[in-house]
Write a structure and sequence with these properties.
It comes from Terriglobus roseus. The chain is an alpha+beta fold and 410 residues long. It has 16 helices and 12 strands. Strands 3-4-9-6-8-7 form a 6-stranded mixed β-barrel. A two-stranded antiparallel ribbon has the order 2-10. A hairpin with a 2-residue loop joins β3 and β4. α2 crosses α12, α10 runs parallel beside α14 and α12 packs antiparallel against α14.
Length: 410
């Protein structure tokens, strides 16, 4: 062990003439540990929120959606779909027909977004039909006529209207039929065959799926779709690939991608991460002030010892390094304790999901944790750097002690 580090460690372990110095040193270690642990947990939460929101969004939606600019739907879509399936980087494609409807059962009703799909193809671009918790989507795959068309709801939508698997629900479309009395909304009875739960409130509270032919019949739009959805091999190049698909589709089409659709959400999460880091890092700054106070008082207590060391030939620079090493040991101890505590609590929170959230507010129903090694390196670096700055003044003061003056009255 180097001389300076040996003396610094001895000073930390030695009994104090002033007990308050030991108390302040313990508080400094605890403060650094609390700040580091808080930062690790906070960054794990923001990483978890971003990861879960992104994974659920990508699991529930396609990477790229292609629509008509005029908004009048896509006719003669089959040859277009087969041609675009061959586009570079496209791994899957599926047609869909969207429409806003009112869904009711008895006196209870709720607004929803119904999507007519071809189930086998829809499952290649979205995971919603694969997250069915009650019932199943087998009836959606039937192409023959049925007494009541099948429909699948999100769990929150089913709860809103009080419907269960096997119940009959009424779906009313605002795109009604023209009669001598004016436009009359069109309605159709459906049988609820499945309830999915994605954990993402936006979809669980409003989405419903039915067969494409049943949706076309409901909206009085035979052989029409409103969107072609695509999965691509690199989701982070979705914008670039979407432009290629749009160009291949020809004039009158527009492609949107998951990045543009959720840009504001992920920008808000990034800003929240930065603000959280700055605010909680103040805890480390407060702990660094405690280190400054503890070392300053220690220098005052050890003035005679420092003078004796310097009279034996210890250089001022070595004295400076003694107190720099002492501050570093305090900071390093607190940082290690904080990292262990922060990662342990983050692992427990991520494994057991014991903190529940309101899905209506946060879009997800539990608080996710996703600690990263890189965050630990960043937090440890900031903690050690701030603490090292706090040791500059007391270590400089110790190096300026004059042995003759300090020992004059001893």
């Amino acid at each position: 062990m180097r001389f300076e580090l040996f003396i610094a460690a001895r000073y930390l372990r030695a009994k104090r003439r002033q007990a308050v110095i030991g108390v302040i040193t313990a508080i400094s270690v605890a403060g650094v540990a609390a700040g580091v642990a808080s930062l690790i947990i906070a960054l794990a939460i923001t990483n978890g929120m971003r990861r879960d929101l992104q994974s659920r969004l990508l699991g529930s939606t396609a990477h790229v959606d292609l629509m008509r600019v005029a908004g009048d739907g896509i006719r003669d879509w089959r040859p277009l779909l087969e041609r675009l399936r061959q586009s570079p980087h496209v791994t899957a494609a599926a047609p869909g027909l969207y429409g806003q409807v009112l869904i009711s059962r008895g006196p209870r009703s709720g607004g929803g977004l119904i999507k007519g799909v071809l189930p086998a193809e829809e499952k290649t671009v979205s995971d919603l039909l694969q997250s069915i918790k009650k019932g199943n989507a087998t009836a959606l795959e039937s192409s023959g006529p049925m007494a009541l068309p099948p429909i699948v709801f999100g769990s929150d939508l089913a709860e809103t209207i009080g419907a269960g698997v096997g119940d009959t629900v009424m779906v009313t479309s605002p795109q009604g039929e023209l009669t001598p009395l004016g436009v009359v909304p069109k309605y159709q009875r459906f049988q609820l065959v499945g309830i999915f739960h994605s954990g993402f409130y936006q979809y669980d509270s409003s989405y419903a799926f039915t067969r494409l032919v049943d949706a076309q019949r409901l909206f009085s739009e035979p052989d029409l779709i409103s969107v072609i959805s695509f999965k691509v091999d690199d989701m982070y190049r979705a914008k670039e690939i979407g432009k290629t698909i749009e160009k291949a589709a020809g004039q009158g089409f527009q492609a949107t991608n998951w990045i543009d659709q959720n840009r504001e959400l992920f920008r808000a999460l990034s800003l929240e991460r930065i603000v959280t880091f700055i605010v909680i890092a103040l805890i480390v700054c407060v702990a660094a002030l405690n280190i400054l106070i503890a070392l300053t008082m220690l220098v005052m207590e050890k003035t005679r010892d420092i003078a004796v060391l310097m009279s034996f030939g210890v250089k001022p620079e070595q004295v400076r390094r003694i107190f720099l090493a002492q501050g570093l040991l305090i900071s390093l101890t607190g940082t290690v304790i904080g990292l262990v505590l922060g990662y342990s609590l983050s692992w427990i929170g991520g494994h057991y999901h014991f903190i529940q959230l309101s899905a209506e507010v946060y879009s997800i129903d539990y608080l996710p944790f996703a600690p990263r090694v890189l965050d630990g390196v960043l937090v440890a670096t900031v903690s050690l750097a701030v603490s090292l700055l706090a040791t500059l003044y007391p270590s400089g003061s110790a190096a300026k002690i004059l042995p003759a003056e300090a020992l004059r009255y001893e």
